[in-house]
Amino acid sequence: MMTVLGILLGVLVVVVITALTGYFVAQEFSFMAVDRSRLKARAEAGDATAKRVLSVTGRTSFMLSGAQLGITVTGLLVGYVAEPLIGAGVGDLLGDAGVPVAVGVAIGAIVALLVSTVVQMVFGELFPKNLAIARPEPVARRLALSTNIYLRIFGPIITLFDASSNLLLKLLRIEPVHDVEHSATPRDLEHIVAESAESGELPAELSQLLDRVLDFPDRNAEHAMVPRPKVDTVHADLPLPEVRTRMATGHTRYPVLDNASDDIIGVVHLGDILDWSADGDATARTARDLARSAVIVPTTLPLPQVLDRIVAAGDEMAVVIDEYGGVAGIVTAEDIAEELVGEIDDEHDPDAPQPVEPIDGGWLILGDTHLDEVSRAIGHELREGYYETLSGLVIAAAGTLPAVGDTVELPVEQDPGDFAEADVPEAPRLIATVVEVVNRVPGRVRVSVAEPATATADPEEDPR
């Protein structure tokens, strides 16, 4: 009877020690997985428990050292008590049943090892780990007070072990890190948005908006500008009455270009013309006389800086200059806003066709649609290059100016993470067919998905 009670006592001791192991494992994973930004917001609102959790997460390395100390000590204790209490008891029971002593001791040791290992792995390691990962904030909140007390009591021992490990790192010329970086790079955020959209956690419209916001700082004036062939301009010597007549059916401001050199003179505004007409005779005046100084930006200037210059000048438009000093186009505040929220229709384009229109078997896309917008609409990342639009990509892939009916295969950019997998997914094949040619370049293109290619092209190769 005493032998059985000894075995039961051993099992109870193992369970208690295993519970302590689970406590430290839950510490380790819950404080690492908890959302710090949410806790900071709650702490600022006066949540005392959130403040205690943040006091632990603010010293990640120290907390992990404390958790590892607890896990190591409790693991050793299980092995220390399991064999004499459980193993020896099982050996005694087998000896009473006539089993040789040596065999009984061996079997008892194996049983003790199996029992302690199973209990430790399932209830001391896996269960608390999975619980902490699945519910990090509730677990962290419940453990915050006891963890702070534990770290305060055993702080000197933990500090000693921490200092020893840091010394070893420095001997290897590695600088110790005392906190885990929880910030995310723009590329990390792009992956988070994409995965959230695929899982249905983010609506498609919101994911596209976030994607545009993340891309915005990397876009330049050339990306958002209205290209020179589509810009309405007036010559410097055009009389003001004719400029006013043109404004009645067009825009309220026009770039003013020199008649001979086509250089930018400035920008003429409707308000200035109306003021001049009210104050004096405008018939003898030309656009040159009322042209304001234009906001001039290079094609390579990032859009946030373009917006800053437009706002600083109190204007709504900038003239974009290329590397040769010529007018490459114009960019307006509306063009910049469209980089964030997508196409904005106004009174000047009431019947504008949709840039990307779904059709049977693919999409019908305007040639001047930017590649990033095409990629978002069709769900495949087109490879970017020295071109900005789908038309430019089709011309680059064809190697010439394509005619109506010409077909090319569009290069698709694969996620670099795919190449780390054992089975690299095959890249989809996108086939582009020119439906309409406008000004010698593709005006409308039909894009369809064909069967995946058997081989994957080099992701860095640029189509020519």
UniProtKB/TrEMBL annotation:
GO molecular function, one term: flavin adenine dinucleotide binding
Name used for this protein in its record: HlyC/CorC family transporter
Domain CNNM transmembrane: 3-206
Alphabetized Gene3D superfamilies for the sequence: 3.30.465.10, CBS-domain
PANTHER family reported in the protein's UniProt record: UPF0053 PROTEIN RV1842C (PTHR43099:SF6), UPF0053 PROTEIN YRKA (PTHR43099)
GO cellular component terms given for this protein: plasma membrane
Family: Belongs to the UPF0053 family.
Topology term for the membrane: Multi-pass membrane protein
InterPro entries: CBS_dom (IPR000644), CBS_dom_sf (IPR046342), CNNM (IPR002550), FAD-bd_PCMH-like_sf (IPR036318), FAD-bd_PCMH_sub2 (IPR016169), Ion_transp-like_CBS (IPR044751), Transptr-assoc_dom (IPR005170), UPF0053_domain (IPR051676)
Record SMART domains: CBS, CorC_HlyC
Subcellular location: Cell membrane
Domain spans labelled CBS: 225-283, 290-347
UniProt keywords, alphabetically: CBS domain, Cell membrane, Membrane, Repeat, Transmembrane, Transmembrane helix
Organism: Gordonia desulfuricans
Lineage: superkingdom: Bacteria
Residue stretches in coiled coil: none
